[in-house]
């Protein structure tokens, strides 16, 4: 089951969902809009290596915006810290942003029960596109669960700002 807007509001009020800052105007019929934070990260090496840490460059987006270029992966983040110990959150791009040619979170929309923090957004533009800090960029839906819950306690817990891949840490654990 997917939570409706009124149930998202009630769940945020009683603590089953945490959204900070919470803005009632960002509640939709069955989702909550999230906004783009001010920091973007890009990988700087010509080849990204899944088994090693990769160098990155961080950019702050000011009020004049920032132009996302095609053929470049940008890691952004939500302004809001969002999480739940009860519901499964899923983050998708907003259709109005998709219609501008921006892909948001198309490969990893599912969040884990128990994760709390700012969400890293994987952004990819079809054409050059100017984005702005604070713009509504995505929406999170919350799904009810069935079965015992084992809360997330992984490597991205408590994230603040965009987080580069830590996949290489998984590989170290296998050595």
TrEMBL record:
A Pfam family annotated for this UniProt entry: DCD
Enzyme class: hydrolase
GO molecular function: dCTP deaminase activity
GO terms classed as biological process: dUTP biosynthetic process; nucleobase-containing small molecule interconversion
Record-listed E.C. numbers: 3.5.4.13
Keywords: Hydrolase, Nucleotide metabolism
Family annotation (NCBIfam families): dCTP_deam
Protein name: dCTP deaminase
């Amino acid at each position: 089951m997917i939570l409706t807007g009124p149930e998202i509001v009630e769940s945020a009020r009683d603590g089953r969902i945490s959204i900070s800052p919470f803005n009632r105007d960002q509640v939709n019929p069955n989702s909550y809009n999230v906004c783009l934070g001010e920091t973007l990260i890009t990988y700087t090496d010509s080849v990204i290596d899944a088994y090693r840490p990769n160098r990155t460059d961080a950019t702050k987006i000011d009020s004049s915006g920032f132009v996302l270029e095609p053929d470049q992966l940008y890691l952004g983040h939500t302004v809001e810290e969002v999480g739940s110990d009860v519901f499964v959150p899923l983050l998708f791009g907003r259709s109005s942003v998709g219609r501008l040619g921006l892909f948001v979170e198309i490969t990893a929309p599912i969040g884990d029960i128990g994760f709390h923090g700012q969400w890293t957004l994987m952004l990819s533009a079809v054409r050059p596109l100017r984005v702005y800090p604070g713009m509504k960029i995505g929406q999170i839906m919350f799904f009810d669960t069935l079965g015992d819950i084992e809360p997330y306690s992984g490597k991205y817990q408590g994230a603040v700002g965009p987080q580069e891949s830590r996949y290489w840490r998984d590989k170290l654990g296998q050595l």
